[in-house]
Amino acid sequence: MKTLLVTGGAGFIGANFVYYWLNTYPEDRLIVLDALTYAGNRASLAQAEKNPNVEFIHADIRDQDRVETLLVREKISTIVHFAAESHVDRSIIGPDAFIDTNIIGTHSLLKAAKNNWLDQHPQPHRFHHISTDEVYGTLKPSDPPFSEETPYAPNSPYAASKASSDHLVRAYHETYGLEVTTSNCSNNYGPYQFPEKLIPLMIVNILHDIPIPVYGDGLQIRDWLYVDDHNLGVDLILKKGIPGQTYNIGGNNEKRNIDIVRLVCSLMDKKLDRKTPADTLITHVTDRAGHDRRYAINAKKITQDLGYVPRTTFEQGIEKTIDWYLDNKTWWKPLVK
After folding, report:
1. Which of 30, 143, 190, 240 sits at a 20 to 30 Å CA gap from 277?
2. What CATH class has 3-192+225-252+295-312?
3. How distant is the alpha carbon of residue 37 from its chain centre?
4. In the chain, where are the structural domains located?
């Protein structure tokens, strides 16, 4: 049995990772650390916490002493670092929280890991850092997808904060020898996603019969990745990834935002037997400041080196996602004002 520290484990991707890991490696122990900010929801872990191999710790990743105590007490040799402020709109309005959590918080974790794993209790270890394709900036329609060699060009305070944390993780490997890996993923979707994000926002607004806001012309392109396929990629990196390396995880699903919106509207019409088509709720609003037009991931490296193949088509994933939100209204209703 091994013990993992999962930061941000009450957030969207982190909570799904907890369930993925419990189902895949039921003998392992998970220490879930989360500050429970607005997007961290302990209710997401309700089933997981029934498992004796799961312990939830309400704490901030910036509390270096607390983290070091956990590493020693629980004999933790693996950190999977999901904790982050991640909503671009919020980063535009209030960037300070993104600097505090994504940069200073990541640095505190790195210091705790170095002090324990390299200085005080030398041991085999792994620090895996979850990042985003947004650090690469934006692509033109004819540009090739982002690879691990694409220069960083973040355009939002969120993306800049994640780029900064990526560089810190790399520096701790190059300077101190900390065994780190980083993954940059495309747009995730699936269960437990906070309702301000595009897909759950659409589902909730259709259920309330209120406008569905679409930024600008809606022609922004994203590569969509089902959350369990993301966690499959993280699993492979933890097992077979080379320390110091970065791996891009993508879904091979480039789609325009407006097409996603129309598809969800169509599927909701069928599931709810709506008399008035949901697409009548689509409302174009002023575009986001500095809105990147296109993201796309080249996942060739993780595919060739680690054997990664997404298991979920977009058609399967979007059906599963809509069904989950329809079946779990008690989870999201308290989050909607």
Report:
1. 190
2. alpha beta
3. 15
4. 3-192+225-252+295-312
As to burial, measured by CB atoms within 10 angstroms (0-12 exposed, 13-18 middle, 19+ buried), residue 256 is middle
Nearest-10 crossing angle of helices 314-327, 257-272: 50
* Active-site residue, from 34, 60, 85, 133: 133
Is 189 one of the annotated active-site residues of the chain?
no
Each residue's pLDDT expressed in tens, for the chain with a length of 337 residues: 799 999 999 999 999 999 999 999 999 999 999 999 988 999 999 999 999 999 999 999 999 999 999 999 999 999 999 999 988 889 999 999 999 999 999 999 999 999 999 999 999 999 999 999 999 999 999 999 999 999 999 999 999 999 999 999 999 999 999 999 999 999 999 999 999 899 999 999 999 999 999 999 999 999 999 999 999 999 999 999 999 999 999 998 999 999 999 999 999 999 999 999 999 999 999 988 888 899 999 999 999 999 999 999 999 999 999 999 999 999 999 999 7
Residue with tokens 């990526």: 166
The pairing of strands 29-34 and 54-58 is parallel
By C-alpha distance, which of 276, 254, 251, 253 is closest to 265? 276
Per the residue annotation, which of 158, 172, 189, 295 is the catalytic one? 158
Q: Is 34 a catalytic residue?
A: no
pTM over 0.90: yes
Q: In 12-141, where does DSSP find H-type helix?
A: 12-24, 64-73, 88-93, 96-98, 106-113
158 catalytically annotated? yes
